[in-house]
Amino acid sequence: MVVISRVSRGSKMDQIYLPRNREGLNAGDYVVVEALEEEIGREKKNGKVNERLFFYGVKDLEPIKLEIIKKVMKILMDKRAFIYNNIIITGSFLNKGFNFKDIDLIIVGDKINGKYLKGILEEKTGIEFHINGIKNKDLIAGLESDPLYEMMLNKCISKKRFVYRTKRKIDYKILDLHLLKSKALIDNFDILNGGEKYYLVRNAMAIYLFIKGKKISKESVDTEVKKIFGVNIDKIKDNLLDRDDFIRKYNSFYDKVFDLIIRGGRK
Amino acid sequence: MHNRNKLIDILISNISNAVVHRILEKATLNPEIVDWYRKEMINSFQIAKKYRDMINPKEKLPEKNIAYIRDKILRKVKGELLIRVNKGYENIDLDKVEEEIDQVLEEMKVI
Fold it and tell me: How far is B62 from chain A (nearest CA, A)?
């Protein structure tokens, strides 16, 4: 069994945490602890992989997912005409387990033909991809002013190192545009499924946290959702909300966020 | 399940939202990243389409419905945009509102 995890600092000793549910690596077994870079370096010698990867906010990852990522990188690198600044894997693929619909890929470069690359990757892997091509300057601008970029890139794996902790710039117009999307939850509560409701709630909450200067990550957003709406995230995703109660709280929250945006954008 | 009038009202809300969104996109975003923003999992346009299909998927709507829908959307959209214009938003072209509405209504096969 192979596990990928991070070394955590301890008071007397540093440690590596292992998931309880695992096969092998039982308490008392002797193990070899090796840096991931060395493992990748060894594979590189054996001609298996070209370069190291950079992990941001990814505490652990199923080894098979790492294999998939390496394969994706290899497929893209084999395309000689493909010129890029960076390749970033993000989204639910990096969450624990295998409950993902597709792999979200951000390819940073000047002229990225996302549709073409999607076709190649899907043909060669059998996995669905969602590819966004973006210029580097737009990525940086997005990270500064867009809460959704921050949430997306809070947990990602990239081919090259990138600066993702930038100083926030509150662009109220961008936030307004994002918040408008979440208005759909108010009128369409009955038609939306649990996943869609969660997406829209999460969107509004990310905007709120962004304005308040708080950290935006899946975990922080989920915690605040639970705190403000008094419901477990799973209840939203499973579409088990109390309609009237939730709409009342959501309306109030939406108006509060919209007010913050409009007041903030006032000249 | 909603009755027809209720479906039309919800359709109006969603189309209004979609139109406001498009106008604000043009006023706010770098044109190169508009596509990025449009490729979202869920948006008002997609939801509006679901309601449109519930009302009468195969044919255009009756003229009296179209006039009512168009008028309501126009009022809602202008109302939303004026809130923003009054707060100092720039580049919002109110003259383009009707054109944007008609475009969305055509895409929805309402007209």
Answer: 24
**Contact assessment for residue A185 and residue A200, using Cβ atoms and an 8 Å cutoff:** yes
Using DSSP, state whether A210 is helix, strand or coil: helix
Mutate to test the interface with A, among B19, B87, B90, B92 (most CBs of A within 10 A): B87
**Domains held by chain B: number:** 1
Tens-place pLDDT, residues A48-68: 555 678 888 888 888 899 999
Distance of CA A122 to CAs A5, A71, A107, B28, Å? 28, 12, 16, 34
Distance between A266 CA and the closest CA of chain B, angstroms:
5
Q: With an 8 Å Cβ cutoff, is B24 touching chain A?
A: yes
Please tell me which of the candidates A132, A142, A187 has its beta carbon nearest to residue B13.
A187
Could you please state the CATH topology (level 3) that the domain comprising A48-158 is classified under. Beta Polymerase; domain 2 (3.30.460)
Q: How many CB atoms lie within 10 A of CB A215?
A: 12
Contact call for residues B28 and A177 (beta carbons, < 8 A): yes
Percent of chain B's residues with pLDDT above 90: 21
C-alpha angle with apex A68: A65 to A71, nearest 5 degrees?
Answer: 155
Structural domain of residue B29, as residue ranges? 4-107
Residue B42 reports pLDDT greater than 90: no
| DSSP states along B27-88 | HHS-GGGHHHHH--SS-HHHHHHHHHHHH-SSSPPPHHHHHHHHHHHHHHHHHHHHHHHHTT
Q: Show me where the domains of chain A are located.
A: 48-158, 172-264
Shortest alpha-carbon distance between residue B56 and chain A (Å)? 17
**Candidate from A134, A141, A266 with C-beta closest to B87:** A266
* Tokens describing residue A176: 């307004």
What CA–CA distances, in Å, run from A222 to A215, A227, A237, A239?
Answer: 12, 9, 12, 16
Low-confidence ranges of chain A (pLDDT < 50): 267
Q: Are B83 and A262 in contact (CB under 8 A)?
A: yes
Q: Which of A15, A120, A116 is nearest to A59 (CA)?
A: A15
Mean pLDDT of chain A: 85
Instruction: Check CB contact under 8 Å for A173 and B24.
Output: yes
| pTM, to two decimals | 0.74
